[in-house]
Design brief:
elongated
Length: 56
């Protein structure tokens, strides 16, 4: 995944968490949160991590 794609994913995740803060799930619904699709976002080389720290 490119640096731009990773940055967009993190920015979307941040805005999604802000949007969804305080929402509740009905008792009869099974909910799965924070599903990771692909490699772990925390695993990145030093150059990518430094780039992300500036924006996140």
């Amino acid at each position: 995944m490119s640096i731009t794609s990773k940055l967009l994913c993190r920015m979307f995740a941040r805005s999604d968490k802000k949007r969804d803060a305080g929402l509740t799930t009905p008792g009869d619904v099974i909910r799965y949160d924070d599903i990771v699709y692909g490699e772990d976002a925390k695993k990145c080389n030093d150059e990518e991590c430094e780039f992300f720290r500036k924006w996140i």
